[in-house]
Amino acid sequence: MMRTLDRYIVRELGGPSLFGLSAFSLIFAATYILNISRLVSDDHAPIWAAIEYFIYQMPQIIVLVIPMALLLGTLLALQRLSGESELTAMKAGGISLNRIVRPVLLTGLAVSFLSLALQELFVPFAQERAAYLLNDVIRHVGIAAAGLDVSTPLPGGGHQLTAAGGYDAARATLRDVTVIQYDRGNVPQQIIFSAEARFLANMWLFTNARTYHFDADGTAVSSIDPLLRIDLGEDPSRIVQRASNNNPDELSRAQLHDIISSNTLSDLQQRKYRSAYDAKLAQPFACLVFTLIALPFGLRPARGSGASVGFGLAVAIVFVYYVILTIARGVATSEPPISVYCAWAPNLLFSGIGITMLRRAAAQ
């Protein structure tokens, strides 16, 4: 009988959750659908490339909306069971409220792990493919049209900061390169400018590089070197990876860990990537958290149209959650020692609220 009850509740949860997944996905996909027309009209992109670019954006959208869909599904399913007195009948049959909601919570936990797997295995590949289509196939600007910057520790102390306007993958060449070398006291000792730097024999070869060397008294001595070899701390494969996925939120935890461990990030980038690394583990479990906080709201019979009330309530909960999440991510970026606590703070807060409300509902 208990297994029958579990199947019945999970089946009731499935339909509304699929409806929520479709509804929220369409809302978030609307912006990308509009981009298809812009890519075709403004960038003269082939229609097949624009559509393929949209398809590769879908995994990231789905991972984002899965918790929202489960939230709406839980609200609608329990509101229906409560409104038609099925929950009352279950309680009258000797089934406790905790036993009734258990399959819902287990579903939320299972979907959390599914969301984590999608985030780690499919989203990074899809984002790399989308970046290639947008930059190489549609806009023809190369894989790294955006600026790049790399921070590398120097053997004698200090560090070296490299900034480039872009990267030509076909020629393994950086464009518009600036290199600044700092001593241990973070005082610039040398600045190098070059129109391009090409990777050759495990080093970067700068062409017609202009170098400014700063003496101890602050005076600068400039020189021009037709061919200057410099170790930037990253090879072209790493450059391509960083350029294709310059947004840490589009990388997997494994990719973020490799980049953080490479010691090629500036201090600001290090904090940004670390914050994303911690958040990547916490965010998929919003599925379980949203399920938990939806339970006490869903147990109350809805007034008026259940679907409209449930959808409005789901949007309100999602809005508050992501406002808190945004604030927590900002604090994590500015305060790295508490980054992991900030990543889990919204989940812990909403879980506490959900558990408190659920206990009150069970006591009634």
Can you walk through the features of this model?
The chain folds into two domains: 2-135 and 275-363, no CATH class; 147-245, lipopolysaccharide transport protein A fold (Sandwich). 62% of the residues lie in helices and 17% in strands. The chain contains eleven helices and six strands. It has helices spanning 2-42, 47-83, 86-92, 97-121, 123-138, 236-244, 253-261, 267-282, 286-298, 306-334, 339-363; strands at residues 148-153, 159-168, 173-182, 188-200, 203-214, 220-230. α2 runs antiparallel to α4 (97-121), α2 packs antiparallel against α5 and α8 runs antiparallel to α10 (306-334).
- Unreliable stretches, pLDDT < 50, 5 or more residues? none
Report mean pLDDT, rounded to a whole number: 82
Percentage of residues assigned to helices: 55-70%
* Helix-strand makeup class: alpha+beta
Question: Could you say which overall geometry the principal axes of the C-alpha atoms support?
Answer: elongated
Question: Biggest β-sheet, characterized?
Answer: 6 strands, antiparallel
The succession of helices and strands, N to C, reads HHHHHEEEEEEHHHHHH
How large a portion of the residues is in β-strands, by DSSP E?
Answer: 15-25%
What is the number of beta strands? 6
Strand order within the widest sheet?
A: 1-2-3-4-5-6
**Radius of gyration using CA atoms only:** 26 Å
Query: Termini separation (Å)?
Result: 25 Å
Summarize the structure in short.
By secondary structure, the chain is α+β, with helices and mostly antiparallel strands.
